[in-house]
Please model this.
Amino acid sequence: MMQKVYFDHNATTAIDKKVLGVMMPYLEMQQGNPTSQHSFGRHARTAIEEAREQVALAIHAHPTEVIFTSGGTEANNMIVHGAAIKNPQSTLVRSNIEHPCVARPMEALTRQGWHHDLLKVNHDGVLTDEAYKNINVNNVSLISVMLANNETGAIQEMSTLSHFAKEKKALSHTDAVQAFGKMDVRFDELQIDAMTLSSHKIYGPQGVGALILNKRSDIEPLIYGGGQEKNLRSGTENIAAIVGFGKACELISESFKETSLLTRELQITLELHLKELGAVIFSEKVKRLSNTTFFAFKNIEGSTLLTALDKKGFAIASGSACSSVNKEPSHVLLAMGIDEDLARGALRISFGNQNTLNDVKTFIETIKKELQTLKQLTAIAA
Amino acid sequence: MERKPIYLDYSATTPIDPRVAEKMIPYITEHFGNPASRSHSFGWTAEKAVEEAREEVAKLVNADPREIVWTSGATESNNLAIKGASHFYSTKGKHVLTIATEHKAVIDAVRELEREGFTATYLEPEPNGLVDLEKFKKAIRPDTVLASVMLVNNEIGVIQDIEALGNICREEKVIFHVDAAQATGKVDIDLEKLPVDLMSFSAHKTYGPKGIGALYVRRKPRIRIEAQMHGGGHERGMRSGTLATHQIVGMGEAFRIARLEMKSENDRIRILRDKLLQGLQSIEEVYVNGDLKHRIPHNLNISFNYVEGESLIMAVKDIAVSSGSACTSASLEPSYVLRALGRSDELAHSSIRFSIGRFTTEADVDFTIQLLKDKIQKLRELSPLWEMFKDGIDISKVEWAAH
Model:
């Protein structure tokens, strides 16, 4: 069988063996419910608190600011819902390239009496000061702008968000799911109130994430019950996954600089060749994650190329994994004002710590051949 | 080194069955794809595993796999069912009916609805923990939109007559939600026959991993719920968020094993529980909480009279048990479930929930009986109340001097 090359790290990552190592005892041995008072329960509780410290350390936050959730989607829903419920009828503001798990809960709230306003990115996929100036509403409860976009990798300026939120007396939130582990993320320096993290994008297990919430911020829970996580998130803690997430945070803060250098090199090589082949690279001119390349060829059907590349052993994505279920062109590209036909052809490559320069070279050889075949087919059809 | 206590707290959480762990691990290491990735085989492999697990969960409760929605656990399932259905059908009415002895996740979800403007009834069960059908029927109002009753109680293990309660809900056109977190693998559940619209499940109470659960949402007649988590539109829009493939696989395997082994396991556990009951009943002044007939064999909840609650728990630390529901045992309030049965605060405080499971042995039970006999005797030797009782003084009639 052909060796598989995985270029879809923004969708999910393979778990680090060391992470699995710390999780195994929690999967294989007798474990208590962390809320139980007997020694089984107390051991589980200690493990969770250690993981909380590891997460906090990796992003320069205080352990009491870490709320474990079932993942990034829940953390994003939690901050949107939680901030909104505190301020009935208020306005929720977000950029127009947010992940659906920020956008959809805001839209749902508009059906229940809240308002919704958008910060619009420019052609390069970033928010300028002008975008903020266009927001004229008051009574804003939350402003959410993602740190790095999952499709283009474009990085947003957080100080503008922070200033604007303070001016509006609103909570500021950033979805740092894609940024964390790929760039230096320091919660204490960003001057924002809340931040979302996910474990499975940083070589940790799926099914766990966190909302980082500074102590001054007051929100309502999304899930009610036993009162875990200081009453903000009820439900028996997912110990194995939480312990794994903690370890993944510790490992990534040691390795992200090195990995970024590696992926930057791969990215430069890849993009050089893609451009030679005539590709358009989105958000090319702006500050961007070193592992992400979002590109398209004019007049080439994205899904056809994707299937062909998968057959040759390359796992890549068209737009975000979550929306690859539907055939709509990327909402991020449309928000950037990219032509719909070009957007439909968009493919995303996202590197990770196991990829090599050799992977990139064989990929370029493969895509060259596939493009030729596709062009011949189109020529015949014409 | 601290000696490991004997684990008799299976209702708080169960260990993962080694067979379940074995099945999960390849999905952590090799098949790590995102099940929503449709563009490559990593995603397809994960998606296939997710769908196989969905079938296993459906099979245990005789449902259609398309009726199973993955969640992060029973707490989320209960929140999704109760808030989701009540919101969706709120034009019909804004009253919710539940039972005072439900799990916190149900009670607190209903309380949240109250804050949003709904009204709620928390019906008291009978002293044996069971719901009276007539009282239940009377508690339904024209504006009742949803009723929520747990199949098996987490503290006292009693089994409610879900079929009869469901039939009442059908007659009254009320949506019926059942929290079955404590029931899977312990009682037969046939959703083709049971008149239930929504049912919550948990993996970690049935030898699966923590952090995964499911909600059954009936298709015929179709029940609609408003999502509580929005995003990528996973789970047909009812619950967004990347699915943790290994956890789902674990839940599927745990439920498959439960389906195959439930009968023989229940027989074995019943023998152990009856032995434990017999042994403990040889101690004077002990009271079983909850009906013994309509009860899962795994649970025994006993109040030890004339013993102080905190000292009791300290005295039996060689066994891992609960003094109330695990989720509330951090608080020193007496169990609200036992109080709803009419137990005094003192009796509620001095109660222990023993929950027996797959890896409990007869030796564990023998040890527990002897431990309790010894410790209760010692504690009572120190208790002036016990002395008064022995002298024939009715303590409830004693007027204590105020200090």
Summary: Chain B touches chain A through 74 residues (CB under 8 Å). Confidence is low (pLDDT under 50) at residues 325-329 of chain B. The first helix of chain B runs from residue 18 to 29. Chain B has twelve helices and twelve strands.
